[in-house]
Amino acid sequence: MPERRTVVDGAWWPRSRDATAELPALVAAVDERLGRTTLRVGLHRDAWQHIPHRFPARGRQVRVGWFRYTDPRVITLTFAAGEPVVLLIIPPDTAAGPAEATLNLTAQDTAGLTTGAILALACPSPGAAPRAPEDGSARWENEGGSVTGQEAQAST
């Protein structure tokens, strides 16, 4: 079955899968950045631990809905006015380089790409991971999200 196309508006790199610990900071940051008021958060039930029914945020309670039939790699924020925002979740244990590449990639035009394709572009599978030369000449190229000065080598 082909992957459902979920249009993402950005990405989020939480520190853990503990929804109670992570959601308040996310909502505060999104509210401030967008100048909007988040009323509800929707997430995949099996992708998170300690999911609250609601949590406090700047003088209100934000409701949390959890579902089993949504993409576990995204979180949806619904506001008092305007369209919802869908964020691609970068797994908490992702290394800094690939996580930053994913953040940069989702800031660009990702129209037509599935969430899996975005993650694959920014975070290639370990079998295709480039290997750093021993002389330390490799460096991360921020704009393209690639490693320069390295040769790709499949692990065996």
In short, what is this structure?
This protein is an alpha+beta fold.
What would your notes on this structure say?
Residues 132-142 have a biased composition (Basic and acidic residues). InterPro entries: DUF5994, Ig-like_dom. By secondary structure, the protein is an alpha+beta fold. It has one domain (10-122). Helix content is 23%, strand content 28%. It is built from three helices and ten strands. The strands form three sheets. It has a six-stranded mixed sheet with strand order 1-6-5-2-4-3. The chain has a two-stranded antiparallel sheet with strand order 7-10. β3 and β4 (60-67) form a beta hairpin. The longest helix is centred in the first third of the chain and has 16 residues, at 19-34. It is globular, with a radius of gyration of 17 Å. The chain starts with 9 loop residues before the first strand and ends with a strand. The relative contact order is 0.17. Residues 127-156 have low confidence and may be disordered.
Order of helices and strands: EHEEEEEHHEEEE
Q: Give me the Rg, rounded.
A: 17 Å
> What is the straight-line distance between the termini?
29 Å
Number of strands: 10
InterPro entries: DUF5994, Ig-like_dom
Protein name: Ig-like domain-containing protein
Biased composition (Basic and acidic residues): 132-142
Organism: Nonomuraea terrae
